[in-house]
Fold this protein.
Amino acid sequence: MTIFSILFGIFLFSLLIFIHELGHFAAAKTFGVQVNEFSMFMGPVLWKKQKGETLYSIRLIPIGGFCEMEGENGDSLSPRSFTAAAWWKRLVILVAGPAMNLLAGLLLFFCFFAPQQRYIVPVVVNFEPGSAIAAVGDEAGLKEGDRILEVDGEKIYMYTDFSLILTANADSERNPENRHDLVLLRNGQRLELKNFPMTKQEFQNEDGTTSLRYGFNFGSEERTILSLLKQAWNASLSNVRMVRISLQMLFTGKAGLKDMSGPVGIVQMMTETSARSASLYYAFLNMLSFGGLISVNLGIMNLLPIPALDGGRSVGVVLTALVEGITRKKIDPKYEGYIHGAGMIALFALMGIIMFKDIFVIIKG
């Protein structure tokens, strides 16, 4: 790992956190909610400046940041406190942070794809000699020119989704023959292939080595402004789906704590991505792509209905508004603050465990 890649990884990750907090800040200011402090990073203050009612600061530890709003935990009587704002304004303020991350992810993917002249698309362009799929295709319908739209009910946004979905759905016990349901687009019409065999074979590479492949190749399309926008959008959707699949693997036990990463692990993966690049230019582009993935992850994870996260707080706002609307009684916001406070403690504990795990992996490696 080079110093440049480490510093750029830290900068990019911190920038994504800053963008998240900027979303909360901008929405709060728009709705007239008092912001006491807007900080980049955490820990002791390195620089600060008071401007109006808000203290702007930069802190020592280059991880995270925060937007501290008046009465955020229900301990203020100010008419401009967070809890005094209308429920829908509070909801917009909370969702604005994750929304900014999703928008930043889209922009980073746009920057990643912009220099490329052509984009690989999930369209079958040819079959490899000796491919078992080519033989089946003559009978069952997979042919050159087919665009693969879905695999096992999952949409194929990017060509990389094809292998991802097949790998995620691999089950040697329930599906030993590796048969999958495909939806194709052929001559403008949708076509379904049920229980189609998708088993990897060993093929020889140009350099004399061999590798396992499915037996066909995808084509490409020329870059246009429309295809560029579509690539960036599809990459964002693909990464949103990847978050969902990762969560499913966690809940089903296919993945565990060892597969999770915190800020330290994320920066390490960024720097490893940079180190594997052929040049500084490609390292920069790959870091942008990885940054897009992390930004989308931050946006989606923060929308989960977990106490202390924006999603959990948003659910609390909606439920509180419903209860107050039915009972016509104001609920003391401190109770919701207790719930999110407990969730924050649990979240920090989990982050601490993951951070030490990431550090141990780096030292051991």
In short: The two ends are 12 Å apart (CA to CA). The longest strand covers residues 35-51.
